[in-house]
């Protein structure tokens, strides 16, 4: 009987110890979460900068039509240009994320590629892009000096570049919208501004 009681007591001690360990780990995770800043889209140098008017041009669509890029939009509207390629694995992963973010943030999503028409048509069919404008040509990529993919440019209703950068995750895509809302060129610039503001207030 005494052995059974000792076993139960030992078991409770182990359970309480495990609870303490779990609580300590949860606290550490919370601390790390506060210290790690959100990562926004990487903004490489080159091409028109955030705040500049977008290059204006008429681009050929995959379906044979044409589309004007860089003009004014409906008041309050935003247009997301997503540069992709059929042979880019990350692009294929970002396509459904871009569609989801565009729906959630009410963005006019435009896909931009530069490849063989048949290859691009197959990509559009595979990922259900028939409902979206799909520009196919090198002119827009050259105008924005796009060097790596997937790359996104967010335009505001005045045709001004509100945010831009390489996008590999949903967080990167959402950071473009956050950058537009805060008036900063990127999430990193916003966080740096907030840090400077906090230091100034502390003085």
Characterization of the model:
By secondary structure, the protein is of the alpha/beta class. It has two domains: 36 residues; 137 residues, Glutaredoxin (3-Layer(aba) Sandwich), CATH 3.40.30. It is 47% helix and 16% strand. It is built from six helices and seven strands. Strands 5-4-3-6-7 form a five-stranded mixed beta sheet, covered by helices on one side. It has a two-stranded antiparallel sheet with strand order 1-2. The longest helix has 34 residues. The N and C termini lie far apart (68 Å).
Q: How many independent structural domains?
A: 2
Q: What is the CATH first-level class name of the largest domain?
A: Alpha Beta
Low-confidence stretches: 33-39
SS-based structural class?
alpha/beta
What name is given to the CATH topology of the largest domain? Answer: Glutaredoxin
Name the assembly state: single chain
Q: DSSP strand (E) fraction?
A: 15-25%
Helix fraction, binned, reads 40-55%
Instruction: Write down how many β-strands occur, each being a DSSP E stretch of 2 or more residues.
Output: 7
**Tally of DSSP helical segments:** 6
Q: How would you write the strand order of the largest sheet?
A: 5-4-3-6-7
Largest sheet: 5 strands, mixed
The name of the CATH architecture of the largest domain is 3-Layer(aba) Sandwich
Gap from first CA to last CA: 68 Å
Order of helices and strands: HEEEHEHEHEEHH
| Mean pLDDT score | 84
Overall shape: it is elongated
Radius of gyration: 24 Å
Q: Name the CATH superfamily assignment of the largest domain.
A: Glutaredoxin
């Amino acid at each position: 009987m005494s052995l059974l009681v000792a076993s139960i007591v030992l078991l409770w001690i182990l359970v309480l110890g495990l609870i303490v360990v779990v609580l300590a780990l949860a606290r550490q995770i919370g601390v790390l979460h506060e210290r790690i800043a959100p990562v926004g889209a990487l903004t490489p140098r080159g091409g028109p900068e955030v705040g500049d008017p977008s290059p204006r041009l008429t681009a050929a669509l995959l379906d044979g039509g044409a589309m004007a890029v860089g003009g004014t939009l409906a008041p309050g509207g935003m247009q997301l240009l997503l540069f992709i390629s059929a042979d880019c694995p990350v692009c294929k992963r970002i396509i459904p994320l871009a569609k989801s973010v565009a729906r959630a943030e009410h963005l006019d999503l435009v896909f931009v590629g530069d490849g063989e028409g048949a290859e691009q048509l197959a990509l559009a069919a595979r990922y259900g892009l028939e409902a979206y404008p799909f520009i196919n040509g090198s002119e827009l990529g050259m105008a924005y000096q796009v060097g790596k993919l997937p790359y996104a440019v967010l335009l505001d209703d005045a045709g001004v570049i509100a945010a831009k950068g390489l996008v590999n995750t949903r967080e990167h895509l959402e950071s473009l919208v956050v950058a537009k809302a805060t008036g900063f060129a990127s999430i990193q610039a916003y966080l740096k501004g907030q840090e400077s503001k906090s230091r100034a207030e502390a003085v």
